[in-house]
Every structure is written in C-alpha cells, then in structure tokens.
Specification:
Elements: E1 2-5, H1 7-14, H2 22-29, E2 34-37, H3 39-49, H4 58-71, E3 73-74, H5 93-102, E4 106-108, H6 112-119, E5 128-130
Parallel strand pairs: 1-2, 1-4, 2-3, 4-5
Length: 141
C-alpha cells in the first residue's frame, strides 16, 4: 500500500516521535505501507525543518532528511490528467497531486484545508484523505 504523509505527519514521525502515529510507523516497519514523495513535498519538509520554532541544528535537520530519503519511495509516475478538487491552501495541492499521481491509497494529514475536502464529500480518484487516527492499523502478526 502506498501512502502520502503531509509535512506535519512526517514531523510527528521523524522529529516528535508522536505515539499517536505508532500504527503508521508499525505499518512502515512491517513494509505493509510505503511512503511516497516527490521533489515538491521533500522541499517543503526541508524548508519546515529549518524553522526556528523546531530548534533543530543543521546536523539534526540533515539527519531527519537523510532518514526520510532512505525510508520513502520517490514517485515514479508522471502527472495524471485526472481532475482533483482545488485545495483552499495552494501549498497543500501538491499532496493531493502526489497521492493521485502515485496511485496512493491514503493521504494522511492533519491539515484543515485538506480535511475540508473530505467533509465536502469531494470525489477523489482512488485515495482517501484521513487523519492519522483514521489510517488502518496493521493486523497483529
């Protein structure tokens, strides 16, 4: 299963080690899910990691980026012509496009602008937008 994580969920995973996404981390570790990314999403992560509010030194920022790059898969697909709803926040449109173009099953986000698309019942092409708690937990083995 391919998934897209928005930047805040990536921060929860690799910076804050948020226990609220432990089921997502477990799915990644068991290789039941693969995070897909592209240049735009990775660039946003790099930019956010440099925010003063995170207080990460350059070495810590690089370590997070290295872990991210080693863990995720680059989207190998070309942009699709399938229409998508327009996100109110243009900076978040890239996550919708990545989920569509990569054939992801889930876009995991805490972003209100993206989540409004779910509440508005937009018909999305092949993927669901979910909060981290809405991502299916891996089956115990």
């Amino acid at each position: 299963m391919q998934i897209v994580l928005d930047t805040n969920v990536v921060l929860d995973w690799l910076v804050f080690r948020d226990p609220g996404i432990a089921h997502i981390v477990t799915a990644l570790e068991r290789r039941l899910a693969v995070v897909v990314t592209n240049d735009l999403c990775e660039a946003e992560l790099a930019r956010v990691l440099a925010y003063d509010t995170l207080a990460l030194n350059p070495s810590a920022r690089q370590s997070v980026l290295d872990t991210y790059r080693q863990t995720v898969t680059r989207n190998p697909y070309q942009a699709s012509a399938l229409p998508l709803p327009r996100c109110k926040d243009p900076d978040d449109q890239k996550f919708l496009e990545l989920a569509r173009d990569a054939g992801a099953q889930y876009l995991v986000t805490k972003d209100k602008a993206l989540l409004k698309l779910v509440r508005a019942r937009y018909r999305l092409r092949g993927f669901s937008i979910v909060l981290p708690r809405g991502f299916p937990a891996p089956i115990a083995s």
